[in-house]
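Run log, item B.
One chain of 154 residues. Sequence copied directly from the ordering sheet:
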Amino acid sequence: MIIYIGADHRGFKMKEKLKAFLDEKGYPVFDLGALSYDDADDYPDFAELVAKKVSETPEESAGVLMCGSGAGVCVTANKFKNVRAALAYSSEQAKAARLHDHINVLCLASDYITNEEAAQITVDWLNTPFSQEGRYLRRLKKINDIESKWGREK
């Protein structure tokens, strides 16, 4: 699975640490920015890049996004078809979101968790499979139906 990663200036340091950690663990990571610290950059720019990539290959890729609160990148990523993004502050929350909701973009709040917590949350999330249980499949179908009815960016 290809992992696309991105962050604005508030998540930049965490992204750099997480990218190095994931590289060390052998995960294929593609950094879509910010590629350098710029306190004037905007989180939607990087969330768009990551979400677009995941949207194009939702079963073969995953995304990890960071900003100060994690909420901004999450809202942006969820505008894209085939993207299910969630904000997680703990491994338990991230695993539940993957297991039950088949999220393919993990959003992290760099102002509220440590780099070590971010690494653990991300690895636990990546190692958790979607359950495929009937009730979860039914719920995802309902989400897809809503997406089709009301539209989303491609």
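Observations after the first pass:
- Residues 99 and 130 are 4 Å apart (CA to CA).
- The mean pLDDT is 96.
Flagged for discussion on Thursday.
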